[in-house]
Every structure is written in structure tokens, then in C-alpha cells.
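Figure 6 in text form: structure in, sequence out.
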């Protein structure tokens, strides 16, 4: 479930329970202050997981707020859903205020550069516009790869981090698997799927979503 917000992406998942309309409205009100706090950060994303445990009759709320250079975690539980949600959000707001006082400026600058790339390389809402679309339609991988060259450093770092989360890939890295080959696999998959990509998603987010499947397929290959 997505809660609407102009800047802060909010994904809400409920397990074992439903959130009635009045509860969603109160949650949206509580999150308005948080949205204002992160308004200066590029692409903030909030995940909220709500789980009801019938044996203990408790609602468990977990929040994850992704900001440049850091992900802020909070949680709470209570027999009343609204109480657990409101307390978790209040803690999240306090932690976010603390982060704003000492942000990771290097990570913020890097995220702003990626956001500028997303705007400059292609207009995400138009699947048929820009040099990437032209190269994909023409089957010109070299031109496609060149148009994405500005993402190279970021993509290599992301691939390296995600390889570490897959022991089967990490064990083969530097032997049968090379980091450069994994990065190239992401580019190749992007080239093949570009004209079918979801245009509501930023280009960097879409590329990021291709990394783990690319690593998984490469690690499974002999």
C-alpha cells in the first residue's frame, strides 16, 4: 500500500490486520511533520511494517527511513494500533531531527547528483524520449552504454555491496566472477528491458532493482 506524498515515498505493509480509513488519515497527519523534515533530502523513502500478533494481542510497528548515507530504524508495540503507530513515528521524527543536525554531506551530495542525472539523462515519464530510448530502439548497445556512463561509479559501488549479501556470489568474486562483469550484466539487462521499464520509477531506482537479479543469475551460471 502506498500513502500519497509529493516528496517522501511511503510504503505501508500490514500483516494480520487491516488499517481502517480513519487510522490511515491519522497516520498521514502524523507523517506530515516527517515529510517536512526530509523535504530537502533527495529521494527519501519510508517503509512501515505493521504486524498483529494474535497470541499476545499486540501490534508491532517497524519503521525504516532511508536517507542519504543512513537508514533510520524505529519501532514500537502496543495493544492499540494507533498508539504503537504514533509512538513509532514520534521516535522517527526525533531521530530524523538529530540526523539533520549532522547529515552525511557526502552522501547527500551523491544522491543529489544521481537525481540530477535522472532528470538530465531521460525524462522518466516518457518511455520513448531521450538518447537511451533512441539507442534501445536502434539496438545500439554501445550508444546506450555511453549514455549511462555517468552512473558507472555509483553502480559499481552498489553491485559491490549487494554481492556481499550473497555468499554464493561473494565466494566466487575475483575468481569466476569479476565485479566488472557483474556491472556489465546490469547494463545488458537494462538495455534489453529499457523499453518495458516502469516509467513512474526514477531511472536510478530502476537500475538499482536490476542489480540483485543480475547477481543472482550470474552466480547461478557455471
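Output sequence:
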Amino acid at each position: 500500500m502506498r500513502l500519497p506524498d509529493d516528496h517522501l515515498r511511503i510504503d505501508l505493509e500490514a500483516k494480520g490486520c487491516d488499517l481502517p480509513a480513519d487510522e490511515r488519515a491519522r497516520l498521514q497527519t502524523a507523517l506530515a511533520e516527517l515529510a517536512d523534515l526530509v523535504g530537502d533530502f533527495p529521494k527519501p523513502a519510508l517503509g512501515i511494517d505493521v504486524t498483529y500478533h494474535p497470541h499476545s494481542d499486540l501490534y508491532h510497528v517497524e519503521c525504516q527511513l532511508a536517507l542519504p548515507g543512513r537508514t533510520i530504524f524505529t519501532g514500537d508495540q502496543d495493544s492499540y494500533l494507533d498508539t504503537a503507530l504514533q509512538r513509532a513515528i514520534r521516535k522517527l521524527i526525533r531521530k530524523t531531527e538529530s540526523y539533520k543536525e549532522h547529515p552525511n554531506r557526502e552522501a547527500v551530495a551523491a544522491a543529489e547528483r544521481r537525481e540530477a542525472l535522472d532528470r538530465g539523462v531521460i525524462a522518466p515519464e516518457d518511455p520513448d524520449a531521450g538518447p537511451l530510448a533512441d539507442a534501445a530502439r536502434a539496438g545500439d548497445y554501445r550508444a546506450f552504454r555511453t549514455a549511462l556512463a555517468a552512473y558507472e561509479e555509483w553502480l559499481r559501488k552498489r553491485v559491490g555491496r549487494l554481492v556481499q549479501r550473497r555468499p554464493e556470489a561473494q565466494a566466487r568474486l575475483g575468481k569466476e566472477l569479476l565485479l566488472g562483469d557483474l556491472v556489465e550484466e546490469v547494463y545488458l539487462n537494462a538495455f534489453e528491458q529499457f523499453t518495458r521499464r516502469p516509467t513512474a520509477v526514477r531511472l536510478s531506482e530502476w537500475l538499482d532493482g536490476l542489480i540483485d537479479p543480475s547477481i543472482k543469475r550470474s552466480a547461478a551460471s557455471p
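Caption detail: DSSP finds nine helices and five strands in the chain.
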